[in-house]
Amino acid sequence: MIFGQHVAFTEKKTRVDSAIGMEWKMFCHCPESWEKLWVEEVFAGQSGKVKVDAKLINVNSDEARNWTGLPREDYWVMNWSVTRL
């Protein structure tokens, strides 16, 4: 089993964000693209032998706003796990 958390979005895309006078680009997966990556690319040809769970969480707390500099309604994280059966 492999698991983790990272910044994500409701659809796969490259985001352009800015905060504290800096601008950056960040590629964000969505749960569907994340599953496709693991099933069709990482473990290609092993259909039925991989289980991917991915859930989006909208981070809407003031604390998250303070450390990200992003609008609260636009900041998502994805908790995920990949299990090889």
User: What structural category characterises the helix and strand content?
Assistant: alpha+beta
Question: What would the principal axes of the Cα set say about the shape?
Answer: elongated
Beta-strand fraction estimate = over 45%
Topology pattern, helix = H, strand = E? EEEHEHE
User: Low-confidence spans: pLDDT under 50, at least 5 residues?
Assistant: none
Number of helices: 2
Helicity level, as a percent range?
10-25%
Beta strands, count: 5
**What's the structural domain tally?**
1
Biggest sheet, spatial arrangement of strands: 1-5-4
Mean pLDDT: 84
Tell me the distance between the termini.
9 Å
Query: Looking at the chains present, what oligomeric state does this protein adopt?
Result: single chain
Radius of gyration: 15 Å
Taking the sheet with the most strands, its summary is:
3 strands, antiparallel
